[in-house]
Design brief:
Elements (H helix, E strand, L loop, with lengths): L1 E4 L9 H12 L7 E4 L15 H15 L3 E5 L9 H7 L2 E3 L3 E3 L6 E3 L10 H11 L1 H8 L3 H21 L9 H10 L4 E4 L6 E9 L2 E9 L7 E7 L4 E7 L3
Parallel strand pairs: 1-2, 2-3, 3-4, 6-7, 7-9
Antiparallel strand pairs: 1-10, 5-6, 8-9, 10-11
Helix pairs in contact: 1-2, 2-3
Length: 246
């Protein structure tokens, strides 16, 4: 069994969420062969050198999980794209490229954070290309910590305000891009997060000249009371929510 989660947005001022995540890692995730965290693990990440006791506690929990036999894989999100190898070493996890293909049971599955699929949000995609450019990223990570935090908080404020003004269709995925990515990676299964719109979508793609049924699984974000997960077995893929109080 594999478990996939995303968009926990962990932060120090949400202790209920942190406790729920740590409990999930210690209990349910420990029963899985692998745990995949598909981005936005943290609500903000300005560099591995800015890790606090809070971040180290999360890293230690993931390290303990990996040491007891569950492989841990992490993908960048739009909030924590600066997360680096230092954190991964402390957390005992492997950093995945976005997108990535896995074949746990012989059939390819495409994993993404999901923001690359939102091609109608032109201003966001433009900003993403700038921030992810290796030179820009290097320069940002070598600024003084106070300046990085100031830039990150200002960027979040602008992004939040801008998102509220955009139509829901603009900040959601583009079906054409979903199909393009799936056909390019030769897969009928895509799993992603980012949009905070949990659902299972049925679509049709063309592979090797044949029209095939395909599915897109969207993970939900975690609140203070509820989380979302995908359970992947040899015979089934299940998207489900779970209450933290149960």
């Amino acid at each position: 069994m594999l478990l996939l989660i995303s968009d926990m947005h962990l932060q120090e001022n949400r202790p209920e969420l942190t406790r729920a995540f740590l409990r999930f890692v210690k209990t349910e995730a420990s029963q899985a062969k692998a745990l995949y965290l598909l981005g936005d693990i943290f609500n903000l990440w300005v560099g591995d050198d800015a890790m606090t006791a809070f971040h180290k506690e999360i890293a230690a929990a993931l390290k303990a999980l990996s040491e007891q036999g569950t492989k841990v894989f992490i993908m960048h999100g739009n909030r924590d794209f600066a997360l680096g190898q230092s954190f991964c070493k402390q957390a005992g996890c492997t950093l995945l490229q976005d997108p990535s293909i896995i074949t746990p049971f012989g059939k390819p599955i495409l994993l993404m954070h999901g923001d690359l699929l939102c091609t109608q949000d032109i201003s966001y995609q433009r900003m993403r290309r700038v921030l992810h450019h290796p030179i820009i990223k290097y320069l940002l990570l070598h600024l003084p910590l106070k300046i990085r935090l100031k830039i990150a908080n200002k960027t979040r404020q602008i992004s939040k305000s801008s998102t509220r003004k955009k139509a829901k269709t603009i900040v959601d995925v583009t079906q054409k891009e979903v199909i393009r990515r799936m056909e390019a990676h030769q897969t009928t299964c895509l799993i992603h997060g980012h949009t905070h719109r949990p659902a299972v979508h049925h679509l049709e793609i063309e592979l090797q000249g044949k029209k095939l049924a395909a599915k897109r699984y969207v993970l939900g974000d975690w609140s203070n009371q509820q989380g979302w997960k995908i359970t992947l077995t040899k015979d089934d893929i299940q998207l489900s929510s779970f209450n933290f109080n149960q």
